[in-house]
Write a structure and sequence with these properties.
This protein has 47 residues and is mainly alpha-helical. It is built from one helix and no strands.
Length: 47
């Protein structure tokens, strides 16, 4: 039972890793650059 739980956990981690690897490129490139640019502009203005 423990081995099966470990295998299930590893499988879930692999699927999570795969989904995370597939998702970030689009989400990070779309969301973070815009947010970072806005934040940088705000910070630069305040500074």
């Amino acid at each position: 039972s423990l081995e099966r739980k470990l295998q299930d956990a590893q499988a879930e981690l692999k699927t999570i890793d795969d989904s995370n690897k597939k998702i970030p490129p689009s989400s990070i490139r779309k969301s973070s650059p815009n947010r970072n640019d806005d934040d940088d502009e705000e910070f630069s203005v305040t500074d």
